Structure formats: structure tokens, C-alpha cells
């Protein structure tokens, strides 16, 4: 099998993840709930672990259903995060959920001789072997979410970015839809790409973009571009060097904030030098 035949489906899946993950990541950063995506990804992993304990394959439809139910319940619970005024308290709450669900996953998977292999798969994923059927399912689900967020962009934007009118703009229904979007995106992605890659694409490109631009649209475009570069390089490198896909992509993506800072200060110094010259 030629390299492009393996890499093309993985690349298309990566693009679908980049489009949705970077957008949601900017909202998460604005809300100050940085680790909610990691917690939801681990909750999806817990759902898969429970399905595995009951005898289902970790990549089966049943496992996806267990993961979605788990993340949907968590989405309903996280909808109440706005009632916690302190950002520190919110992060502690989210972090506690992550630790608890990770521990539960370890306990559940320890009951099986193949449990540790399943745990490794949950964290690292194997996007190189994604099928076109999986890509079609993800494309339909993500496409529906994109349409919803485009139609109701003002409501979602106000919930995340309008601090002065936070209570006035709050709607339990739209807040639940926001976290449900996470539930759908993460459930479909974790099973394919793994927890590490899902979290990295949700936060790191978006954070890096905030170091380079102010406007939401500019940050989103930059986050897309940065994630596309690291995913493309990561997929090629993991295939060429026979490295774990998730870990390779996450390592390259993890370099983005440093690169963004260097570029930011280089441009700042260049402007200062040009100003002095004039």
C-alpha cells in the first residue's frame, strides 16, 4: 500500500478535527476552563473502558455509544460551571473530575489481561488506520455542529466572550448545547486519535494563536494554520519513522507556543527598530 493511501484518510480526519477543535479551544480559553476538554476526553475514555469491560471492542459502535452517554452526562454537569465564580475553583473541579475518571478507567481496565493495551490505545489512538466510514460519520456530525454554531454564533460568542453581560446572556439551553458539542466532538475523536492528540489540538494551537492576534477570526485562522502544519508533519514523520502517531503529533504541536512567542517578540523588536529608524 502506497504512503498516500494510508496518510490521506488520516490527513482528512485531522483536518476535520482541526476545524472544530481550534474553534472550541478559543471558547475554552476565553472561559478560563482550560482542562475541561481533557476531562471530557478522559470521561469519553471511561465510557470506552466500561464498554470494554462488558465485552465490547474498544472501537465498536457500542463503545462509542458508552463514551457519548458518559460525556453527555458530564456536559450536563459542566453546564453548571458558570455558577462557580472563581476560575481557580472551576479548574480544581474540572481537574478533580479528570483525576477521578482516569483512576476509574485504570481500575476497570486492570480487570482484563488486555486492559493496559486498551488504555494505551485510548491515550495514543491510531489515526493512521482510520477508515473512510469513520471519516464519513465524523464529517456528518461535525458538519451539523458547524451549521448550528454558525446559525447561533452570537449566542455562543456572548456566552464565552461577553464578560460584562455574562449573567444576562446566560442560557442554560445554549450552555448545554455548547458542552454537548464538546461531547460529540470528543467522543468521535478520542476513539480514533486518542486523548493526548484530542487535548493538544483543542488547546495548544488556539493558545498559540492568542499570542499572535487579538481578533477572534484572526486567532481562529492562525490556529487552523498552525495545527495543519504540525498535524501534516506529525503524520508524515510517524509513518516514515514508525513512531506512535498521537505522541508524534502532540510533541510537534507542543512546540507551537514557543515558536509563537519567538515570532511575537521578533515582530515586536522589528517594529521598535523601524520606529527608531524613522
Account of the protein in words:
This protein has a single domain (3-202), classed as ABC transporter involved in vitamin B12 uptake, BtuC (Orthogonal Bundle). The mean pLDDT is 86. The protein is globular. Helix 10 (195-210) runs parallel beside helix 12. It contains 13 helices and no strands. The longest helix has 29 residues, at 3-31. By secondary structure, it is mostly helical. The protein is 81% helix and 0% strand.
Give me the Rg, rounded.
Answer: 19 Å
Helix content: over 70%
CATH architecture heading: Orthogonal Bundle
- What is the number of domains? 1
Q: Using DSSP, what is the number of strands?
A: 0
Going by helix content, strand content and strand pairing, the class is mainly alpha
The CATH H-level superfamily is ABC transporter involved in vitamin B12 uptake, BtuC
CATH topology: ABC transporter involved in vitamin B12 uptake, BtuC
Spell out the helices and strands N to C: HHHHHHHHHHHHH
What is the count of helical runs? 13
Mean pLDDT: 86
Amino acid at each position: 500500500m502506497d504512503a498516500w493511501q494510508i496518510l490521506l484518510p488520516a490527513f482528512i480526519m485531522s483536518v476535520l478535527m482541526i476545524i472544530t477543535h481550534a474553534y472550541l479551544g478559543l471558547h475554552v480559553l476565553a472561559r478560563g476552563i482550560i482542562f475541561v476538554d481533557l476531562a471530557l476526553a478522559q470521561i469519553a475514555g471511561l465510557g470506552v473502558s466500561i464498554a470494554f469491560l462488558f465485552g465490547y471492542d474498544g472501537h465498536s459502535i457500542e463503545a462509542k455509544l458508552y463514551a457519548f452517554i458518559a460525556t453527555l452526562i458530564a456536559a450536563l454537569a459542566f453546564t453548571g460551571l458558570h455558577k462557580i465564580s472563581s476560575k481557580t475553583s472551576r479548574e480544581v473541579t474540572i481537574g478533580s473530575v479528570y483525576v477521578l475518571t482516569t483512576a476509574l478507567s485504570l481500575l476497570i481496565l486492570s480487570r482484563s489481561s488486555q486492559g493496559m493495551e486498551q488504555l494505551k490505545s485510548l491515550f495514543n489512538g491510531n489515526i493512521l488506520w482510520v477508515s473512510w466510514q469513520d471519516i464519513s460519520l465524523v464529517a456528518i456530525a461535525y458538519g451539523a455542529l458547524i451549521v448550528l454554531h454558525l446559525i447561533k454564533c452570537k449566542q455562543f460568542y456572548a456566552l464565552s466572550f461577553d464578560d460584562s453581560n455574562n449573567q444576562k446572556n446566560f442560557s442554560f439551553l445554549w450552555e448545554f448545547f455548547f458542552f454537548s458539542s464538546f461531547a460529540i466532538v470528543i467522543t468521535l475523536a478520542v476513539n480514533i486519535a486518542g486523548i493526548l492528540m484530542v487535548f493538544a489540538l483543542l488547546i495548544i494551537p488556539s493558545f498559540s494563536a492568542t499570542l499572535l492576534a487579538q481578533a477572534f477570526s484572526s486567532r481562529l485562522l492562525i490556529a487552523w494554520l498552525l495545527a495543519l502544519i504540525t498535524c501534516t508533519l506529525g503524520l508524515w514523520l510517524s509513518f516514515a519513522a514508525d513512531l506512535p502517531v498521537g505522541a508524534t503529533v502532540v510533541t510537534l504541536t507542543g512546540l507551537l507556543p514557543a515558536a509563537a512567542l519567538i515570532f511575537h517578540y521578533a515582530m515586536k523588536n522589528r517594529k521598535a527598530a523601524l520606529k527608531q529608524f524613522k
